[in-house]
TrEMBL record:
Organism per entry: Streptomyces endocoffeicus
Membrane-protein topology: Multi-pass membrane protein
Pfam families with a match to the protein in the record: Rhomboid
GO biological process assignments: proteolysis
Top-level taxon: Bacteria
Transmembrane stretches, start-end: 78-102, 114-133, 139-160, 172-193, 205-223
Alphabetical list of PANTHER family matching this protein: RHOMBOID PROTEASE GLPG, RHOMBOID-RELATED PROTEIN
InterPro entries for the chain: Peptidase_S54_rhomboid_dom, Rhomboid-like_sf
Compartments in which it is found: Membrane
Entry GO MF terms: peptidase activity
Every Peptidase S54 rhomboid domain range: 81-225
The name this protein goes by in its record: Rhomboid family intramembrane serine protease
Keywords (A to Z) from UniProt: Cell inner membrane, Cell membrane, Hydrolase, Membrane, Protease, Transmembrane, Transmembrane helix
Length: 244
């Protein structure tokens, strides 16, 4: 659930301005995942060792391999873009799509569909590029929309500072509790920063890409919209489901 500080709600499906771009991105990622080897649902990739080999080849082909990205191969500049639509497993996919659905809809409404699409792709591309630059010698593939979605979270924090979300936290026995969105997102950033500091010897974990994406998204919203676009207590609210 997301609401503004006024406490009023407006279901997304009730209004004419539906977030079609957000829906399109979610459908695209889900469809690509189901058809690919990571889902385990496509019999064309086989099973057992054959499936594992197919997954590895698939991730290297469509994901970002930092050492290959800087090799001069003319196909590599597209890797950070294709990697945004590839996910490693069901949990990876569902977690990313949940956050995209919750925070992407309101952000798209504020930015507009075309601007949101360009913002999403550009932020995700730059986030993965930043990660690859920091781990230029790594041969481990990196996939997922986390960098782009992190950018959406950063923009959301600037645009909707007074929104509130209902969240489930494992260490609080999964009790549904309401928090200001800014508190949830800052807590998320802090976790990413701590994890990134502990993951220097594990370049396959993309915490750095999350931080780069979040920072870029926040700075873009600040530079592009300024204070005039921020939603306070009197602005239109929206509704969704969130379980960070």
């Amino acid at each position: 659930m997301i609401e503004t500080s006024s406490g009023r709600h407006r279901p997304w499906m009730a209004g004419p301005g539906r977030p079609w771009m957000t829906y399109g991105l979610i459908v695209s990622c889900c469809l690509i995942f189901v058809l690919g080897p990571a889902s385990g649902l496509n019999p064309g990739y086989g099973s057992g060792g054959r499936l594992v080999e197919a997954q590895s080849t698939y991730f290297e082909r469509w994901g970002v391999v930092p050492s290959a990205l800087w090799s001069g191969d003319p196909d590599q500049p597209l890797a950070p873009l294709t990697a945004l639509f590839v996910h490693g497993n069901w949990l990876h996919l569902l977690g990313n799509m949940l956050f995209l659905y919750v925070f992407g809809a309101m952000t798209e409404e504020r930015m507009g569909r075309f601007q949101f699409a360009v913002f999403y792709l550009a932020t995700g591309y730059l986030a993965l590029l930043g990660y690859a630059a920091a781990h230029a010698d790594s041969a481990q593939s990196l996939v997922g929309a986390s960098g782009a979605i992190s950018g959406v979270l950063g923009a959301f924090l600037w645009l909707f500072p007074r929104a509130r979300v209902t969240s489930l936290f494992p260490f609080l026995l999964f009790l549904p509790l309401r928090f200001p969105a800014w508190a949830v997102l800052i807590f998320w950033v802090a976790l990413q920063w701590l994890a990134a500091r502990q993951a220097d010897d594990r370049p396959g974990v993309a915490y750095l890409a999350h931080l780069v994406g979040f920072t870029l998204g926040f700075l873009y919203a600040w530079a592009r919209f300024g204070r005039r676009a921020r939603v306070g207590g009197a602005a239109r609210p929206s509704e969704g489901e969130s379980q960070p």
